[in-house]
Amino acid sequence: MPTAAAQTSRQSPLLDTAAFLRKALAITAKDVRVEMRTRELFSSMFVFALIVSVIFNYTLDLKPTQVQDVAAGLMWIVFAFAGVIGLNRIFVSETDAGTLQALLVAPIDRAALFAGKWLSTVIFILVTQLVNVPLFALFANLPFGNLLALAPIFVLGTLGFAAVGTLFAAMAANTHMREVMLPILLLPLAMPVLLASIELTSTALAGRSLDGARHWLTLLVAYDLVFIVAGLLAFEIITQED
Length: 242
Hints:
Blueprint: H1 4-38, H2 40-59, H3 64-97, H4 99-105, H5 110-140, H6 151-172, H7 178-205, H8 214-238
Helix pairs in contact: 1-5, 2-3, 2-5, 3-5, 3-6, 3-7, 5-6, 5-8, 6-7, 6-8, 7-8
């Protein structure tokens, strides 16, 4: 019959996982509560995405047959820069207020801190997409019937973009010219996830099956896994004090 110590040993990974999730979700809930109270982050991301979408749609003067070819790229360019704005505001505002430093000295696993911030970023970007994609489709006369097929693509693309973005936003938060440093660091490494997302979005908007773009889907999933794991492992090193 197993001893109490053996039972505790077997349960400890589950208990550790539950504690990790509680801490990560507590950080996410804190970020969401702050945003619900101030609405500064979502407002800046939404307004930026809306303005740029309108400018693109009314200045490019594309033929109906050309719209679907460029719409996917335009949407992801807009959301990438909106995400940069959101990441900058999350980390810069917390750095200036001392909140990030308080979290770093608190008895919280840095991996849980990364997971909480990553999930917050995912939520904010997805909400921005949820509001702006239908408006973009309306302005560009895209078929609304194909928009539902975009949901899993946007989720997968956002998971990877937010993972690498959270890593580099934390790295850039304590640097000079931090608002400039983040896009310089982030966008080159985010190119694979953006290219894969654009190709998959273009395929879905055209009403075609994703079977023909399976290699892009594989790239997107692999990218997500690599940078989520890298963030969990490397966040402690990145946020160490000198």
